[in-house]
Amino acid sequence: MAAGVGSLGCDAADSCSADVILYSAVISACEKSQQWQQALGLFALMQQTDVLPDVMSYNATISAVGNGQQWQQASISWR
Known about the structure:
Low-confidence stretches: none
Strand content: under 5%
Order of helices and strands: HHHHH
Number of helices: 5
Oligomer: single chain
Helix content: 55-70%
Mean pLDDT: 79
Radius of gyration: 12 Å
């Protein structure tokens, strides 16, 4: 799930901290590469790590699930 953030050099062993800008960029990349599941996973991970989503991260996630025609999955994730 967090492969996108991990591939940028941020993982549990690193001292860097992923912020909303990094998450939004990776979620946007997932959307562009039609990886809606990764986008949803990263969106959930944001919230688990106390990174507050912003308009960009919501828009990127919504676009990813919309392009993947997975609206029902997205609505379950945001309950």
